[in-house]
Amino acid sequence: MKIAFTYLTAYKGTGGIEKFNRSFIAAIRETEPAVQLVSLHDSKDVPGDVPVHAFNGRLLPYLRKVFAILRETDVLFVGHVNLWVVILLGKFLKPRLKVVLIAHGIDVWNPMPVWKKKALVKADHILAVSSYTRQRILDIFDVAPDKVSVFHNTIGYEMRTKPTLAPAARLREKFGFSATDRVVLTVARLSSGEAYKGYDKVIAALPEVRKLIPSVRYVILGKYDEGEKQRVDALIMTHGVQDLVRLAGYVDDEVLQAYYNLSDAFVMPSLHEGFGIVFIEAMAYGLPVVAGNKDGSVDALDHGRLGTLVDPENPEEVREAICACLADPTQADMEHRLKRQHDVYETFGYDRFVENLKTILQTI
Hints:
Elements: E1 3-7, H1 16-31, E2 36-39, E3 52-54, H2 59-70, E4 75-78, H3 84-93, E5 98-103, H4 106-109, H5 114-122, E6 125-128, H6 131-140, E7 148-150, H7 169-175, E8 182-187, H8 199-212, E9 216-221, H9 226-238, E10 245-249, H10 253-262, E11 265-268, H11 277-284, E12 289-292, H12 297-300, E13 308-310, H13 315-327, H14 334-348, H15 350-363
Parallel strand pairs: 1-2, 1-4, 2-3, 4-5, 5-6, 6-7, 8-9, 8-11, 9-10, 11-12, 12-13
Helix pairs in contact: 1-15, 3-5, 8-13, 14-15
């Protein structure tokens, strides 16, 4: 069986889909070393040992390479529905080609043009990163249930070795936090077009949380656009928590490690998460996690086994969950942090991801 994987980008960005693609490339090369890899948007960022045909956004050369490879390909994995043209033309030119589409979340929930819908339905199989994403696909599209499988995200190839759990004294000094301050962290893009991550719910909860835990502090980490930053700044002023909240902006992965180690809890009561790699990353650093119970976050927390699920639209549940994480001294002790780390690696570690991919390939 000859296999190819085509995708948008893996090495240019740092988002959840890029992280998934990097892990998928590592796993499929480990399982099928002869796999052909073709990227529309990657370029010089590709590591030298990864044999990717990368086209830096040049569509026509990309399509020529994909269709040349398809002549000798039995199974084509497609990393995003935005590559609909590859699915439609590939199935037209080679009807016996098996196409497996990877679906992450809003890429398949949002309204889409008719040709994208046709491409999704034409795919022979769909891998959804969570049971929530799978159900949304079944609700929206006319596809058979056995055509859509759950293929969970992973902590990632880059984090296949468990990280060190260590104090982050420099960050505490940078933000003016004391050694006894209790830090809540959210890692999310602050976008006016995607204001569903729930950091506004956390900000609204802080005045009441502070009554029980005066030492609470809140750090929001991630890129932001000016419109959303203005909205968040206004929320902070409205709730009178200017002294508690820090907007830290974007940091690279190496610095991100220090933020996880700085924190005492990770909270992101999202409404429309496809899965949420940041949840399992936070647990990889031993943090107690609070997430919403209405989206793919449920899978990331293994239906509540690995963390606390709350109704993201219920302020009282959000507040109580934050307080429970910070007020319970056992949540922060090293024994509990190491157990969380162990449990999340057993469930979503890279080795488990590889085994799941092998099962998918054997089924195909």
